[in-house]
Amino acid sequence: MSEVSDSKIVNKIVEIRRKNLNKFRRDFVERPVKYWLEKDRLFNKIGSSLVVILATRGCNWALSNWGGCSMCGYVYDAPITVPDSKSLIKQFELAYESSISAKSPLAIKIFTSGSFFDEMEVPKTARESILNKIAADERIEELIVETRPEYVNYEILSQCREILGEIYFEVAIGLETSNDNIRNYYINKGFELKDFERAVFMAKNTGVGVKSYILIKPLFLREGEAIIDSISSAIDSFKIGVNSISFNPCTVHRGTLVEYLWKLGKYRPPWLWSIIEILKKTSKNLNSERRIICSLVGIGSKKGPHNCGKCDKQIRKLLNEFTLTQSPEVLLNMECDCKQEWLDYCEEEFI
Ligand code: SF4
Ligand SMILES: [Zn+2]
Predict the structure, then answer these.
(1) Cα–Cα distance for residue pair 128/181, rounded to 1 Å
(2) How far apart are CA 97 and CA 5, in angstroms?
(3) What CATH number has the domain bearing residue 128?
(4) Domain-embedded: residue 2
(5) Residues 45-89: pLDDT tens digits?
(6) Is 322 part of any domain?
(7) Which of the two ends of the chain, N or C, has the fewest CB atoms closer than 10 A to its terminal CB?
(8) What residue numbers bound the domain in which 145 lies?
(9) Domain membership flag for residue 1
(10) Cα(328)–Cα(115) distance, rounded to whole angstroms?
């Protein structure tokens, strides 16, 4: 854990977490949290993705005495009874069945709302079985799993690489920002940039790709500061050697410090204009070895990234088009009366 975390923020996060863990969690129902098929951006082409959120014991960081990240409520999806290897394999198979009719090229994205490489969440037997199933399916061109950097090591990377053969394998890590102070004071992420760099280095040496999640507008950043932070974090991530960037505009999850401050009127999720600005600036760094993805979660809702309400739907469509085509041109001609309001908001917040 970083020494730079502010103890008041950590205490509040822990207090909120403890209160809500018992309130929100349900017992295990032998199914993944969610799974679905979607049209998606694969490396250099458009294809489909099967997205699976496995129900595991939950993120170790969120369950620890540090309480986890200030914006994250995914741990409440973790069931009270911990699913074993057999259950995890069953969960994956259930989701996998739903992709049987999907055509190639297909990507599989496995989320655990924690770390796929943490063996307390996904034991080795479950991991191997899931990877073997994927490796045997000729339609699958990519596998993406998410993990915190402390679980990345040569042994696990080489084992995955070996089982997956030709399939492009990418590890997604929630860097959130390349600024250590913002990551540890405001997000309570609990790792340093050097931990991320170490994980990227090992992945590169093993022929594994890396995706960096960047959080747009962490707590306590003004709108304008958040834009600058996301742009510099993306540029830094590319310099470190990541293959993909996924911008995650902050949404208000239940049972989090973000929700607590949002209810007090002290937090507003990012404007969609800010997201457009960030994508326009960072897409200058795109090339055939890199991709930039923008998460659409919560867009247009009060608890999610939003504009005035009139232009949100159209911008959501354009952001999706940007992700699929990787063409910043699609973002150029959007206009709405609320753009001036956003500009004033950015300026006022700077004063
Ligand atoms: S953002 Fe990731 S690391 Fe942080 S609490 Fe949520 S799942 Fe855990
Ligand atoms: Zn508008």
Answers:
(1) 37
(2) 44
(3) 3.20.20.70
(4) no
(5) 999 999 999 999 999 999 999 999 999 999 999 999 999 999 999
(6) yes
(7) C
(8) 7-350
(9) no
(10) 32
User: Which residues face 108 on adjacent strands?
Assistant: 50, 143
Residue nearest to atom 6 of ligand 1 (CA): 72
Say if 170 falls within a structural domain.
yes
Q: How far is the CA of 346 from the centre of ligand 2 (A)?
A: 15
- The angle, 0 to 180 degrees and rounded to 10, between the axes of the packed helices 223-240 and 193-205 is 30
**Residue ranges lining ligand 1, Cβ < 6 Å:** 59, 61-62, 68-69, 72, 74, 113-114, 148, 174
Tokens of 311: 């232009």
- Identify the residue whose tokens are 């089982």: 163
Atom of ligand 1 nearest to the CA of 62: 5
State yes or no: pLDDT of 351 exceeds 70. Answer: no
CB 150 within 8 A of CB 191: yes
Q: Which of 79, 109, 302 is nearest to 213 (CA)?
A: 109
Q: In what order do the strands lie in the sheet with 140-146?
A: 34-42, 45-53, 106-111, 140-146, 168-176, 209-216, 244-249, 291-294
148, 156 Cβ separation under 8 angstroms: no
Residue with the two structure tokens 């996301």: 230
Mutation to probe ligand 1, out of 9, 59, 297 (largest number of atoms < 8 A from CB): 59
Residue 40 neighbours by CB under 8 Å, 6+ apart: 46, 47, 48, 49, 107, 323, 324
pLDDT tens digit sequence for 298-348? 999 999 999 999 999 999 999 999 999 999 999 998 999 999 999 999 987
pTM for this entry: 0.96
- Ligand 2 centroid distance, CA of 40 (Å): 26
Single-letter residue type at 295: S
Q: What is the mean pLDDT of residues 127-140?
A: 98
Q: Which atom of ligand 1 is nearest to the CA of 176?
A: 1
Q: Say whether 200 sits in a helix, a strand or coil.
A: helix
pLDDT confidence bin for 255, thresholds 50/70/90: very high
Question: 106 near 99, Cβ under 8 Å?
Answer: yes
